[in-house]
Amino acid sequence: MSDVFNWQLGREMSYPYDESHPDWQFAFVFNINRCIACQTCTMACKSTWTFSKGQEFMWWNNVESKPYGGYPRNWDVKLLGMLEKANPDEQIWDTFSKGPEKPFGVFEGKTIFEAADKDPSARAPKRALGYLPTDEEWQNPNIHEETASGKTMKEGEWGRSAQLPEHDIWFFYLQRLCNHCSYPACLAACPRKAIYKRKEDGIVLIDQKRCRGYRKCVEACPYKKPMYRPTTRVSEKCIGCYPRIEGKDPELSPNREPLETRCMSSCVGKIRMQGLLPVKDGKWEAAPDHPLYYLIQERKIALPLYPQFGTQANGYYIPPRWVPQPHLEQMFGPGVANALVQYSCPDRELLSVLQLFRSTQQIIYKFKIEKGPKLAEIERTLPSGQKKVQEIYNDTVIGYNKFGKEVVRATTEQPSFERTKEHLNSI
Amino acid sequence: MSERATESVGQSTAEEQFFKDEHPANRPAETGDPMGMTAESAPGDPELMLTILVEEYASLGMNADEIMRIFDDPFYGATANLKRLLGEDRIRTRINEVVQNCGALRVSVRS
After folding, report:
1. Largest CA distance in chain A
2. CB distance A172–B49 less than 8 Å?
């Protein structure tokens, strides 16, 4: 085991390989507040990459309802339970020791790598604490919301053969794909060394020729994103739509402009933004004018999913404002309170950057804001119930692609208000 | 009543009984049922969820009618479920309240 630095935990942690980083890192931000569970991303991915025989239950991208649901079922609850069992009452954050290198404080518990030797059911030494989901757990991409249920009708029968299930209690929708982690557990666990992280963009891939289908990656990945394909007897996972990232689509990027992945660019609710971040000396190079760096590092409103797992996942989420904070903190770490306060009443700069979501298919490497006059003041409610006035300006945010060319321009023109019925014709 | 009509009524009753007794949505949960819900309900506020979703889409530049259309579409799970739970009137009222209070941001995008 080597010691590697994990900025999300604010400390060094044990990892089976020495620290090694790509030149650029694939990363994304999802704004959970806007997701309406249309599953367009899920189907965009499915119809592009996993439509073949043996891939029927394979969803590289899925959207699951939380807290119940999950694909595979209860993946996170199960692993959190295993970690708690391995390190009882010690999976805690020290939030007092925050600093530039540790924005969320220090995680004092054990990661999946550090708790690997605490699995009493393991027959042989493990590189990461994990489990192999059963076939039943893989069957439902979002149980009780994705499948029609009911009586199977015989030939000639007709009527209400199936209906979509309904439920009254729900919380929010969590969009998931491979996080292309900086310290991937799948890569660490593979006995064949068939998994590698690309130097040019940090995308994690499984070499299909080297893989022998031992499923160690499936067992070790805490997010359960590598999947076994019985027809080929090897494992597969999200490939980050790397032909698009490389700008190899002759129609959409004739000049080899990098494009966002299929799941990102198809998003109906405009919740997704993806990009590549420059890495220097193992860290993201400071780039406050990069939209992802701005949201993740500068403003810290986009947070990693289950940072306590220790893989330094590169998927980040703006937490939903309507969900009780303790639940969110377990999921996104101690940065939740700050993120919710900032997002509830965005200032002019943040509001501008938020308008870049899904404004173009091209990957945005840089943004610039052209300031405009003040348009309005709107009262917003903070999570504490306090009121705060948001100032709206007629600002224009400009996005630039890899070659520094302007690709999008979004202007906040003015808010329009609707009159009440009583005052429809008043002047 | 014709023979055909009688059959139809009989079929309908049996069908209704089936949905009452055996449809997974109506059956009581069984311990050990791999398809059963085993999670505990967590505190959540659908009204707050509604307000925030409406604010989000207003801040993307949609007006009240456009936002209402997201709630009408059965393929948008989050919003369609909210409409089923709270009713169309409540949704319409809340959309109007939010748009009257916060306005819908008009955003122009050129690419």
Report:
1. 79
2. yes
- Residue ranges and CATH numbers for the domains of chain A are 2-146+168-338 (3.30.70.20), 340-423 (no CATH)
Chain B: residue nearest A381 by CA?
B52
Tell me the shortest Cα–Cα distance from A323 to chain B, in angstroms: 6
pLDDT in tens, A260-280: 999 999 999 999 999 999 999
Cβ-based contacts of B45 with chain A (< 8 Å): 322
ipTM of the complex: 0.84
Distance from CA of A212 to the nearest CA of B (A): 30
Q: How far is A70 from chain B (nearest CA, A)?
A: 12
Tokens of A338: 């700050």
Domain boundaries, chain B: 1-39, 46-102
CB atoms within 10 A of CB A74: 19
pLDDT in tens, A302-332: 999 999 999 999 999 999 999 888 889 999 9
Taking CA atoms, A416 is separated from A275, A411, B93, B100, B104, in Å, by 32, 14, 17, 9, 5
Residues A360, A398: contact at Cβ < 8 Å? no
Is B111's CB within 8 Å of A270's CB?
Answer: no
